[in-house]
Amino acid sequence: MKMRTRNLLAVLAITLLFTACASEKQLEEIIQQSNEEETTTLEESTQPDEPVVALPGLPDDVAGYTQWLKLNAEPIPPAPGGDPHNGTKNVHVNQTRDTIAPNGIQQFPYPDGSIVVKEASRPGKDYVGLIAIMRKKAGADPDHNDWQFIEYVRNAPDAEFSVIAEGRSCWGCHAGVKDIDYVFTELD
Ligand code: HEC
């Protein structure tokens, strides 16, 4: 009984104290503030994603390529005995699975406007050091299924990419897979 009375008194004291300190107006302010805080967090979480920008030195049309369809299910390891695009690789294309593989079976050739991007991290390095691109532009090069080839490299994670080779130097090997539209990596 004694305990209960003491508790009751404590509650009363706290209530009195609170009423004394926080007038109704102050209370309103507190409530408004917490509402504002809530709105801010909500707004922040519904902000659209930051615009995707290409890695430094790369053309804009490959910005965000890592979000594109990935052809290989597992990273492609460096080829034993010499690798033309030395490193651990992923190959992306700006097409959907439905477009290039209707009914689950990949169809060739790739549609006009296709862009195939291969990124490679050099052995022992944890950043992308090589970007090889194939772009299909109607009429650009009928002898090679209208693919345009170009390759970029860099030697530091924050460095700009620069062109190392393009065109003719790429055809030799890729012509070996002419029957699947010059693209070695097939959709897994
Ligand atoms: C010595 C042979 C060889 C040469 C030369 C070569 N490639 Fe490749 N390329 C390959 C092979 C093999 C692959 C398959 C993936 C892998 O193992 O790296 C490939 C993959 C690619 C891919 C990913 C799509 C695909 O075919 O799988 C692109 C893009 C590419 N090469 C661009 C280029 C460009 C651009 C050049 C010229 C600067 C070039 N390649 C020169 C052999 C070659």
Provide the fold topology:
Blueprint: H1 2-21, H2 24-46, E1 69-70, E2 88-93, H3 97-100, E3 115-121, E4 128-136, E5 147-153, E6 162-166, H4 168-174
Antiparallel strand pairs: 1-2, 2-3, 3-4, 4-5, 5-6
The structure holds heme C.
Heme C (HEC) binds at residues 76, 79, 84-85, 89, 91, 116, 118, 132-134, 149-151, 165-166, 169-170, 172-174, 183-185.
Give the number of helices.
4
Q: What global shape is seen?
A: globular
* The CATH superfamily title of the largest domain: Cytochrome P460
Indicate the mean pLDDT.
84
N-end to C-end Cα span? 76 Å
Class from helix and strand fractions: alpha+beta
Poorly predicted regions: 12-21, 38-46
The share of residues in extended strands comes to 15-25%
Biggest pleated-sheet summary: 6 strands, antiparallel
Question: Which architecture of the largest domain would the CATH scheme give at its second level?
Answer: 3-Layer(bba) Sandwich
CATH topology of the largest domain: Chalcone isomerase
Q: Residue share in helices?
A: 25-40%
**Order of strands across the main sheet:** 1-2-3-4-5-6
CATH class of the largest domain: Alpha Beta
- What hetero molecules are bound to the protein chains? heme C
- SSE pattern, N- to C-terminal: HHEEHEEEEH
Pfam families: Cytochrome_P460 (PF16694)
Signal peptide: 1-23
Keywords: Signal
Domain Cytochrome P460: 63-185
List keywords for this structure.
188 residues; alpha+beta; Chalcone isomerase; 2 domains; 6-stranded antiparallel β-sheet; 29% helix; binds heme C
